[in-house]
Structures are given as C-alpha cells and as structure tokens.
Amino acid sequence: MRSIWNGAISFGLVSIPIKLVNATENHSIHFRQIHLADGGRIRYRKVCELDEEEVQGDEIGKAYEDADGTMIPITDEDLAQLPLPTAKTIEIVAFVPADQIDPLQMDAAYYLSANGVPAAKPYTLLREALKRSNKVAVAKYALRGRERLGMLRVVDDVIAMHGLLWPDEIRAPEGVAPDGDVTVRDAELDLADALMDTLGEVDLGSLHDDYREAVEELIAAKASGETVRPAESGDDGGKVIDLIAALENSVRAARKSRGGEGAGAEGQSDGEMADVHPIKKTSGKPAGKSSAQTTKKSTTAAKKSAPESTGAKNSMSTTKKATGSRSTAKKTAKKTAAKKQTSSGGGTGTKKTASSRKRASA
C-alpha cells in the first residue's frame, strides 16, 4: 500500500519513524455528468476570472480570501515553516479508556507502518503497551494543511489511527429529539428486547453493499440493451402503524429468517400474518322462521320418499294374499283327500256285507 504521509510517533522521548497508509477504500460507483440532449460529457474547467483563460494544475496556488474579498496568497513553504511540533510528528498526549472517545468524533482511518528496521523495536513496544493497558492513545498530528486530533489503537498486529474531529466540531443535538413527552409501555419495551435478542449478533464480514450491486446490475443490463423493470418498493413512507403489532411481526420474521423457532402466537408460523376476513352480516330474519324452513324441507323430503313407502306396503299386502291363497289350497286339498278316503272306505264295507250275506245263505 502506498503511504500518504511520512513522519514519526512521539512517545515521550521515544521517536518511532512511521508511514501513514489509508486503512479504508471507497467502492462507490462514480457517475459522469452528461448533456441530456446529445449525451456529451460535461467537464469543469478551471478558468481565471481576470483573463478568462483555462489554467493548468501547476499554475494554481492557494490563497485566503479576506472579508473584503482581498486574496492573500499562502504557499506550501509558508505552511512548512510554521512552528508546529506536529508538522511531521504524531504527538501522543494521553492514554485513555476507549469508551471515553465519542464515536461522533470518528473520522478517517489509517494504518501506521514502521518505517525501516530501526523502527521495529519501538513500534512493537508501543503496540504491546497499548494491548496490555486496554487503552487507546490520544494524539495530535498535522495533515493536509491543518492540525488534527487522532486516536491510536491496535488492530491485529498493527497500530491504527483514527482521525478525530475536535470537540467543538461536534454539533449539539438541539431540536432533533421528538417534541413533547412520549410514554413507552413496558410491553413495548419487552417486545423490543425480544426483537434485539432474536436478531442477536452478526458477522460484519458477511454484510455487503446491496445498493452498489443493484447499480452494477443496472449498468450491465442497460449496456447489453436489456429492458430494466422497476423494482417494487416496500417502503411505507412513514406510515403510522400499530407499534405492538409491528414489533410482534418483526420478532416472528426475525426468528423465521434465523432458522425458525416453531410457530408464533395463535398457532401461526413465524413471520406470517393471519388473513382477516369481514364477518358476514345476517339477514335479520327471526330464528323461528329459519327453523320452520328447515322443518318444511324435512317434510318435503318425507313426501318425496312417500311413494317408496307405499310401494313397500303394497308389496307386503301382495305377500299376505299369496300366503292366504296357499293356505286355502292346502285346506281344499286336505278336504278332497278326506272325501276320497271316506268314499273308498264305504265301498269296502259294502263288499264285506255282501260277502257276509252270501256266507249266511250258504
């Protein structure tokens, strides 16, 4: 990595030669300005107001504009001759606990690299001292024409420096808080705590810039001539919501996104909301009429089934008649048989009488 500043860390009477290297980089997608009529690029040219001629970079210097508009030239040599001990030195002024540094003061971040072999020993000494003390170093340094405030801390095996804003550069948050007294109920706080516990911790390394990826996809689609469809926006735009319901749904959604912990309240799955249907209004007719309609339907059904019942009765009657006929036939047959027997018996008796008479006469 290319250094942007060379100097030394002043640690009491110890001087540690270092190089200053940017610790961050900007991945934002940069756009050019164009003329909408013909697509021509818009450029900004540096033009002198007196002769109206374009000026190159090596012809441009610095000046301070006085209240009456007078320009007071200031050269780099003038700034280099200022009696500042921090012109080429990061001067440590104190060691404090890290929580004493207001995050609002945090600015750009840099890595401090030991400049040369002789710097390795004192560099390592300061690094290990910071580790063991669990403190950070507050320092002053000069960069890009102004003196700045910095905080030194250890990142892995490297000393990092965060530029800090001066305390008087932090604006007071006047008029920012909500107007009036707002009461928060314990139930709302409990749900907020539950949501915080559900979201839990996150690996910051897994987070990425979704907007930049979407812009890259947009550029690639337009470059290939594809039609880009606008995405549906889910932003409520400051819509007033039921805070309790929103918190409950947020907890269910968070649990579902992190693997799920079973169904939510009222037997629903996490993250899902119940479908609400309006209750159908009744016609206002009395219940007795409805009951009468039911009875009437039953009677109608009974009438429909009546022919089947009549047919069953006719069948039973026919069966009885057939049974009666069979009984009469049997009786008639028995009588006829009896008569035959009687008739047959009478003939035999007559024959016997005649035979007896013949014997007697003999």
Structure in a nutshell:
38% of the residues lie in helices and 19% in strands. With 362 residues, the protein is of the alpha+beta class.
Topology readout:
Elements: E1 3-11, E2 14-22, E3 62-65, E4 71-74, H1 76-80, E5 89-97, E6 106-114, H2 120-133, E7 135-143, E8 146-155, E9 158-164, H3 186-199, H4 210-223, H5 243-257, H6 287-304, H7 306-361
Parallel strand pairs: 1-5
Antiparallel strand pairs: 1-2, 2-6, 3-4, 5-7, 6-9, 7-8, 8-9
Helix pairs in contact: 3-5
Describe the structure.
The protein has 362 residues and is α+β, with helices and mostly antiparallel strands. The protein is built from 7 helices and 9 strands; from the N terminus they run ββββαββαβββααααα. A 7-stranded mixed β-barrel has the order 1-2-6-9-8-7-5. The chain has a two-stranded antiparallel sheet with strand order 3-4. Strand 7 and strand 8 form a beta hairpin. The relative contact order is 0.07.
Descriptors:
362 residues; alpha+beta; seven-stranded mixed barrel; two-stranded antiparallel ribbon; extended
Helix fraction, binned, reads: 25-40%
Which strands sit side by side, in order, in the main sheet?
A: 1-2-6-9-8-7-5
Q: How many strand elements?
A: 9
CA gyration radius, whole angstroms: 55 Å
What is the number of helical segments per DSSP (H or I, 4+ residues)? 7
Structural class of the secondary elements? Answer: alpha+beta
Shape assignment: extended
pLDDT under 50 segments (min length 5)? 261-325, 338-362
Distance between the termini: 174 Å
Oligomeric state: single chain
Biggest pleated-sheet summary: 7 strands, mixed, barrel
How much strand?
15-25%
Q: What is the N-to-C order of secondary-structure elements (H for helix, E for strand)?
A: EEEEHEEHEEEHHHHH
Mean pLDDT: 76
